[in-house]
Amino acid sequence: MSSSPLRRTAIDALHRSLGATMTDFAGWDMPLRYGSERDEHNAVRTRAGLFDLSHMGEITVTGPQAAALLDHALVGDIGGIRAGRARYTMICREDGGILDDLIVYRLAETEAGSSHYLVVANASNAQVVLDALVERSAGFDAVVRDDRDAYALIAVQGPESPGILASLTDADLDGLKYYAGLPGTVAGVPALIARTGYTGEDGFELFVRPEHAVELWQALTKAGEGAGLVPCGLSCRDTLRLEAGMPLYGHELSTSLTPFDAGLGRVVKFGKDGDFVGREALTEAAAKAESNPPRILVGLVAEGRRVPRAGYAVVAGGEVIGEVTSGAPSPTLGKPIAMAYVDAAHAAPGTPGVGVDVRGTHEPYEVVALPFYKRQK
For residues 120 and 147, what is the distance between their CA atoms, to the nearest angstrom? Predict the structure, then answer.
């Protein structure tokens, strides 16, 4: 059986010229690292990093009933998003299981009475989300469009990122709040400039046409030379988001968990108008979580050097009390860290006697509140 060739982003040749180690990620050939993962990670924490995120799945929803469709299809209050703002939300199955976590941007109204939304899905779930939105759009005066090929996505993240970007645009970055986006021009390239990211740092995600991606990447690289900007791969993106306590689909989120199981029940807006897919199941999940708390997502910090990996058992008193969902060495803390779902009885920070079964050895871990790292604002 022949597998289809990996998709390549518009910046693929540039990554190779920079000596990137490439990897298959959700059917895309993506840069894993360019040099040292630790150096890339530390650059984002202290200076700035440049990421190609063109594998993410963009879906445009337009029309007079675009908001009503998204309110029906997703768990969040999408109609309540003001133009120019974004919201973190989820799309769930009828049984409440999470299909994906999403960011939805409300763009300027296209014409009188017609709303315009950009839904950004994870690369691994883009087709699933697209199919679900198309199916759920029946009966709504709205159009769901697959725009994955219409965008390249470049992110500049880290404390130096506002200065780097400001040197290339006259857009009002000072007035651009976190989780907001505005159309502008960056280095002469038309872009949707969004103050969003997945690193725990201040930063921007720039949605541009694929044919403009290389020139934008090169302009950002040049503008960031004096600020210590470096190209960054998926590997440090993972350690950055782990330190920031941000969930990753397939690890902390899955169809076997509801938002309430994942400790993210706040994204479910029962107060919005109309019915939405999964409402009944999620109402039950919310009540159950109140009376009988599910396993709770916590942070674990190693006392030793051994790195916990996804799927490893969390143990206490000889019993399995949970499971690691993500684990890696933390460059910022200088120790291995993990996120894990553990029984509520063992979830309080400082709970004694908690360990991780690392290949048959119970390694001691400290239970801590998430996130591991919070930037100083």
Answer: 10
Encoded tokens for 85: 């703002």
Closest CA relative to residue 258, chosen from 279, 231, 236: 279
Within a 13 Å sphere around the CA of 184, how many CA atoms are in the beta-carbon half? 21
Q: How many CA atoms lie within 13 A of 148 on its CB side?
A: 17
Which residues 6+ apart lie within 8 Å of 17 measured at CB? none
Given the DSSP bridges, would you call strands 57-63 and 143-146 parallel, antiparallel or unpaired? antiparallel
With CA atoms as reference, report the closest residue to 39 among 245, 241, 232, 307. Answer: 232
Per residue in 27-45, is it b (16+ CB within 10 Å) or e — as a string? bbbbbbbbeebeebbbbbb
Q: How far apart are CA 105 and CA 45, in angstroms?
A: 26
* SS3 (DSSP) at 33: strand
User: What region, left, alpha or beta, does residue 116 occupy, with left being phi > 0 and alpha being psi -120 to 50 degrees?
Assistant: beta
Q: Are 90 and 255 in contact (CB under 8 A)?
A: no
- Integer Cα distance of 59 and 143 in angstroms: 10
d(CA 305, CA 347): 22
**Tens-digit pLDDT profile for residues 60-78:** 999 999 999 999 999 999 9
Show the beta-strand stretches assigned E in 114-270: 114-121, 143-146, 152-157, 181-186, 189-194, 203-208, 229-231
d(CA 354, CA 342): 10
Rounded CA gap, 60 and 364, in Å?
A: 47
* pLDDT given for residue 109 in this prediction: 76
Pairing of strands 181-186, 361-368: unpaired
Alpha helix (H) ranges present in the chain? 12-17, 37-46, 66-73, 126-136, 161-166, 213-223, 234-243, 279-291
Note the pLDDT tens digit of each residue in 212-265: 999 999 999 999 999 999 999 999 999 999 999 999 999 999 999 999 999 999
